[in-house]
Amino acid sequence: MSIFKNFFKSLTSSExxxxxxxxxxxxxxxxxxxxxxxxxxxxxxxxxxxxxxxxPEIQTDIxxxxxxxxxxxxxxxxxxxxxxxxLDELQNLLSWSQFVETQNTKDxxxxxxxxxxxxxxxxGTYVVEAYGPATRNVEESQTEAVITGPHEAFVESYxxxxxxxxxxxxxxxxxxxxxxxxxxTKTSVYLLYxxxxxxxxxxEEVVSRIQDIEIDSIQDTNxxxxxxxxxxxxxxxxxxxxxRPDVIASKLVSGRVIGIVEGxxxxxxxPTAFFEFxxxxxxxxxRWLLGTALRLLRFTAFVITVGFTxxxxxxxxxHYEMIPETLLRTLVESRGRVPFPPIFEALLMEVTIELLxxxxxxxxxxxxxxxxxxxxxxxxxxxxxxxxxxNILIISVASSxxxxxxxxxxxxxxxxxxxxxxxxxxxxxLGNFGIMFGIGLVVIHMCGITNLGTSYVTPVAPMNxxxxxxxxxxxxxxxxxxxxxxxxxxxxxxxKMRR
Length: 499
What we know:
By secondary structure, this protein is an alpha+beta fold. Helices cover 46% and strands 12% of the residues.
């Protein structure tokens, strides 16, 4: 039976490999290049997806992972040239530019794992770059959709992502640095900056932090930034991440450092300020008055999502005198059947909303939308009829949830939702004083955060009124020509970094 299995396996070989005979360890000699081949096969033993073929006429072996290489490049740059030459012509072929000689076995193994083809010949060992795994096409961003403007988004291939940026910034001053992070995964990390615009102190600091990372694996940009931020225990994201090439290109031009991680569809920008998370590309692709209105709307939504439910709990628990008389009668009637104090009532509904939000995000798109809409309506109405909550609280919780969706950054939106729970508890325990005390703690914490040595709340502290034209409003382009003070290059003083 095994004979038939081997026969059928041989029939499934690709046409490119029909004229190539497999080799075994017993056929190997003890000369230098075969010893390197033997060590390579030993290191990659028990890898069922490894391809090892031999060209007996020219005493040459090739080793590669078929799913990591481009079939066209493999055929044109390796297979066909090796099939069409004699042994005395081999040295001339190896002088072609795609054959890079290497004497280090570790480099050969790493090249194979990175999508290259290792070529073992009597004259030495060579590596041919043929990386070309299957990747998804460039599509529209799912988390940063815009109405007007470009609709391209990054993918998991670093080559495609770099091409999307290079297409927008056609300058020789755009520089790219490469690093490897992860003792096992050897994940490629690329740092981008524009020479003579960026503050090189920022570049050196990011490089130093990346080189200091000691971890087995890095899978995504959002994992990397947690290793290099300055306040790892803060609730706020300290690096802006984006899936949009136009956003990243604009950050580069403004003097920031950009990071791209192989296998991740997002890039990070540094240094970053808190108010950048409230900016959307739509602001710049529409008329400045409309962009200003939308930006002010987002800051209003921030206030609503943070404090609306907490204010309801505070007022209904301690400060009934703040409620107008006509509304007070309605509120008393609404809460007459509720057996819980406002703080437990609010926390119950907020947790329910978060459960619906998480369920909608994890389920398939169409089912998730149905769960979110139907679940919210049914549970809210049933809770009111059962006397577990009041109508006004349902309105408050729903308004806070909707306002959180207005914030463009999903990571920042999630952080703000957690702050809301803290303010609800403070309002239920200490009233308005508790809310103000909680807000004060958040503001103090934000003022203490630094990003590459710069203030997280720039341009509010340190104060720079000129930059407010592109922070709290979106002024006409003629009025916002200057680069942000956070990324300006110092002329006569050296920037001191704080870790």
